[in-house]
Write a structure and sequence with these properties.
Blueprint lengths: L5 E3 L5 E3 L10 E4 L5 E4 L7 E4 L2 E2 L6 H6 L5 E6 L2 E4 L5 H5 L3 E7 L2 E7 L3 E8 L6 E11 L5 E10 L12 H5 L3 E4 L3 E4 L3 E4 L2 E4 L3 E8 L7 E5 H5 L24 E3 L3 E6 L3 E3 L4 E11 L3 H11 L4 H17 L3 E3 L3 H20 L14 E2 H14 L4 H8 L12 E2 L6 E2 L12 H16 L8 E3 L5 E2 L4 E2 L20 E3 H14 L26 E2 H25 L3 E5 L3 H4 L7 H16 L5 E5 H22 L1 E3 L4 E3 L2 E2 L18 H8 L5 H14 L1 E2 L4 E2 L30 H13 L3 H15 L2 H4 L6 E4 L5 E4 L4 H13 L2 E4 L2 E4 L12 E8 L2 E8 L9 E8 L2 E7 L2 E3 L9 E8 L2
Parallel strand pairs: 45-49
Antiparallel strand pairs: 1-2, 2-9, 3-4, 4-5, 5-6, 7-8, 7-13, 9-10, 10-11, 11-12, 12-23, 13-21, 13-22, 14-15, 14-20, 15-18, 16-17, 18-23, 19-21, 24-44, 25-26, 26-27, 28-31, 29-30, 32-37, 33-34, 35-36, 38-39, 40-41, 42-43, 43-48, 44-45, 46-47, 46-49
Length: about 900
């Protein structure tokens, strides 16, 4: 293996040679509103629209290499059988050369050997229809004529992921396969899954057309017929011409495992000439006639080229909303993929790709808020609408629905029906709203109103409501029965003041069922999260500042809040944990029978209460949770189920990265402590071999004091792996505190390692974490992608929003410039703008200042480390030219 095996270009396109030499590779194929698919270099993967509607059998990463269920295109060439999966006996004995080309978001596999060149290009076209398209081009490179028999096999699984094991055979009895002129459709009679036994209205089909044939000549609508007795899908009988076809268009075959086995007549292909097959997979809540018409349209001549052009154009537009130029062209291309990942997560959630350990679909609460951060950078126009919808998932007890549906106002207590409270959930909504308001200047978003979520759970889900909910009603109502609406500010205050009172014996926020680290789920008795106590403290201060700003600039003197909140706000001065919990309990009892009545809180008093709470938490952390070992120091991050401190300096060092990140993000630490934290992280958590930072040191063998992470092997996932999300937030926090070299070094380490396929063994992008042997795990669907985008724009390029104005304070290093220039494109002032930094002397950070700004025809001398640009200056311009000069 050589590092040159992957070629990555600035537009994000890449070529990976010998792609079959890497395990577990997969590529997402999707478009918003359409099919959710993935494809591997072996043409494996699945295709579905949600948990209950899989066209191909569901796959895990292990299935990508080991399962034979997938898309197959066979070619019998002069009596020998080949496949674009590479799994036939002759290809196993004499492997093909396999190269992959990736574009946003098109995947192409090229297989070559002495007989042929086979190129398979795959995409999901943009649009509302759930369709997956493939163009398969077979070229004779043997130098002599070939007898070629092409055959397609696509399993038409047609049911829920649950049925992969549960009722697999019984649900096959529901299948109704219909042969059409160019494909096969399976429209089962019923669906058996967690929703019950329901009449099925969904059809699944695969359709094909050939450039050298009028239509398929043979049809095999069941797996049994296609494979033949005693064989399997690596060497089935039908593609070898050993199965006599029994079906023709119009036939229906009931009660078997359905498939689209489509065979074209054998032809003689002269040397150098090609055969092109277009294959379409489709899912639709339509009848067989309508799905057949859809399939016919997508395999018609010219349709693939039209879809390919439209798909590439759509993705270029989406990813060009945020763009960078840097000194490293490879890094520009890598960042293209990272910037596309938040959109992937908005569509896939944290499920539906081969690493699907996060469950059964739905958009998670924390993920939803963080993915909006990248959208604020690229296109904030829809973010306000999303904010207003999402806060409707908050309960009046300060907890929230953990799943936000795709329909407005649709919320679910939990995707797995195990209702829990994550102690970090309250912080993310405010972070997103704050960033949105700062970058757009839309302070009025805090005054907009929304309802609250209400189900049977109260008291942080520990009790059930005495008020019965009927007919699926999930809206919080007052005593009068009407839906109660409160301001967005009120929702955010609720999410922050309840945790202030929901504390453990050490004065930190109770860990409850877990925080950001989902593996900390077995410490609810006496567990505390010091890490997120810090972030709540920082957010409380910022909330107070917004209250004061709304008074000063929007003229809001009084804020109507629901009456029960006074129980908490009037006790903001409390420090004793037991006394705070007693107030919490009074509040929980009160909102269990919510009145819906409001009282006015004056701005100064409300801000003062929030600031008191922030000060209490800050003092608690800085005075009681800091520790030193004589060389350096760091913060304790947690307390376990016995109330025992998790981080320690002796007798054996225990350290958590999360415990350092959020005090830094909340700016609780001074410069001396930050320097000590950096030294401690480098000593105890840094892994030189992967240029990454572990989430924690070994925390001991006790499997019950913290949570399920303790059962994971150390160095994997939440137990000590280099976890991208926390590492990127660490980099962001270092940069925000002025530790520029340290922060950019963390970012560069992630990029250097992940972009080297020989090490990370993944397509370009950022993974959730690195395994102990250095493999990139859970690619694509990770919240770290949004934080990379935010960190590059707001910290490295220093383009921050401050109440609707643009503050430019670059923290670019000398290596970031290409021929003396680095630029960034993002949304601001209601349009897309470009900021170009000119650094002709190649000065490093610390050696330069902003000399001048040029906006349109106007040049402004600055001579400072930063500059402020307002909307009026940008009224007739979309580019800011920033000239850097050596410090005086």
């Amino acid at each position: 293996m050589t590092p040159s095996r992957l070629s990555l270009r600035p537009d994000g396109s890449f070529v990976l040679r010998d792609a079959d030499q890497f395990s577990y590779l997969y590529f997402p194929l999707f478009a918003p509103g359409g099919m959710l698919s993935c494809v591997s270099p072996e043409f494996q993967g699945d295709a579905k629209t949600d948990l209950n509607h899989f066209l191909l059998p569901p796959v895990s990463v292990e299935d990508l290499r080991h399962s034979l269920f997938g898309r197959h295109v066979f070619f019998q060439v002069d009596g020998e059988l080949f496949s674009n999966t590479g799994k036939t006996p002759i290809q196993k004995l004499h492997p093909d050369q396999v190269d992959v080309t990736g574009e946003l978001l098109v995947h192409a596999i090229v297989r070559t050997n002495r007989q042929f060149r086979l190129e398979t290009t795959s995409l999901v076209p943009v649009g509302a229809e759930a369709v997956e398209l493939h163009r398969i081009v077979y070229q004779n490179v043997s130098g002599k004529p070939q007898r070629v028999l092409p055959t397609i096999l696509v399993p038409l699984y047609g049911r829920s992921a649950d049925n992969l094991r549960d009722h697999r055979h019984v649900t096959s009895l529901l299948n109704r396969a219909v042969v059409t002129d160019c494909g096969v459709i399976n429209r089962p009679t019923l669906s058996f899954d967690e929703r019950g036994h329901l009449i099925n209205k969904t059809a699944y089909g695969a359709f094909a057309a050939s450039s050298r044939h009028a239509a398929p000549s043979a049809f095999y609508p069941t797996i049994e017929e296609f494979v033949g007795e005693g064989d399997d899908l690596s060497y089935p009988k039908a593609p070898r011409g050993l199965q006599t076809p029994k079906h023709r268009p119009g036939d229906r075959i009931d009660g078997y495992e359905s498939c689209a086995g489509l065979q074209f007549e054998e032809l003689v292909l002269p040397p150098g000439e090609s055969l092109t097959i277009t294959l379409a997979l489709a899912i639709g809540e339509v009848d067989e006639t309508q799905l057949a018409a859809l399939g016919r349209r997508y395999v018609a001549p010219g349709s693939f080229e039209t879809a390919l052009k439209a798909t590439l154009a759509w993705w270029k537009k989406e990813t060009d909303r945020f763009a960078l130029t840097l000194g490293d062209a490879n890094q520009i291309g890598w960042l293209k993929w990272v910037s596309a990942q938040p959109l992937m997560r908005r569509v896939y959630g944290n499920s539906f790709l081969p690493y699907h350990d996060y469950g059964r679909g739905g958009r998670g609460w924390r993920d939803l808020w963080q993915d909006l951060l990248a959208q604020i950078i690229g296109d904030p126009t829809q973010v306000r609408k999303a904010i207003l919808n999402n806060v409707g998932g908050i309960r009046v007890d300060g907890s929230n629905a953990t799943i936000v549906g795709h329909k407005p106002g649709e919320f679910v207590a939990d995707r797995n029906k195990i209702v829990r409270v994550w102690s970090d959930h309250g912080v993310w909504g405010f972070i997103t709203v704050d960033w949105y308001a700062q970058r757009t200047g839309d302070a009025s978003v805090f005054l907009a109103e929304q309802t609250y979520f209400s189900d049977k759970f109260t008291h942080y889900t520990h009790r059930s409501s005495p008020v019965l909910k009927e007919n699926g009603d999930t809206v919080q109502r007052g005593r009068d029965g009407r839906p109660y609406k409160g301001s967005i500010l009120e929702h955010l205050i609720v999410e922050h003041v309840v945790p202030f009172f929901n504390v453990g014996d050490h004065g930190n926020v109770r860990l409850e069922d877990a925080d950001w680290n989902d593996g900390l789920d077995m410490a609810k008795e006496q567990g505390e999260t010091v890490a997120f106590t810090a972030l709540y403290a920082g957010n409380l201060r910022k909330l107070a500042s917004w209250v004061r700003r709304l008074e000063a600039f929007e003229g809001v003197k009084d804020f109507p809040l629901y009456r029960e909140l006074a129980i908490l706000l009037e006790q903001a001065q409390l420090v004793d944990p037991q006394a705070r919990r007693a107030v919490r309990d009074r509040y929980f009892d009160a909102v269990a029978t919510f009145t819906g009545e409001t009282v006015a809180f004056d701005a100064a008093g409300l801000a003062c209460a929030l600031e008191k709470m922030a000060a209490t938490l800050e003092h608690q952390i800085n005075e009681r949770e800091w520790m030193e070992d004589g060389v350096s120091g760091w913060y304790n991050g947690y307390y376990d189920k016995h109330g025992t401190r998790v981080d320690q300096t002796a007798p054996k060092v225990r350290m958590t990265l999360t415990g350092q990140v959020f005090p830094l993000m909340a700016k609780l630490a001074d410069k001396d402590r930050i320097a000590q934290i950096v030294a401690s992280v480098n000593r105890h958590l840094y892994r030189q071999d992967v240029k990454g930072i572990r989430l924690n040191t070994p925390l001991g063998e006790d499997k019950h004091t913290l949570g399920r992470l303790m059962g994971f092997a150390f160095g994997h996932k939440e137990n000590g792996a280099p976890f991208s999300h926390m590492s990127v937030m660490y980099a962001y926090s270092l940069l925000a505190n002025g530790f520029v070299k340290e922060g950019t070094d963390v970012l560069d380490g992630i990029y250097d390692y992940c972009s080297n396929v020989e090490q990370s063994r993944m397509y370009p992008g950022i993974p959730e974490y690195l395994s102990e042997d250095g493999r990139g795990m859970y690619p694509y669907l990770t919240g770290s992608a949004s934080w990379v985008v935010i960190t590059m724009v707001e910290q490295v390029f220093g383009a921050q929003g401050v109440h609707g104005e643009l503050r430019l304070e670059p923290k670019l290093r000398g290596r970031h410039f290409h021929k003396g220039e680095a630029s960034v494109k993002f949304a601001f002032f209601g349009k897309t703008i470009v900021v170009r930094y000119l650094n002709p002397e190649a000065l490093d950070y610390g050696d330069y200042r902003i000399g001048s700004l040029q906006i349109g025809s106007k040049t402004v001398d600055v001579k400072q480390p930063y500059s402020i640009v307002n909307a009026s200056q940008m009224a007739n311009a979309d580019t800011i030219l920033v000239r850097l000069e050596r410090k005086a």
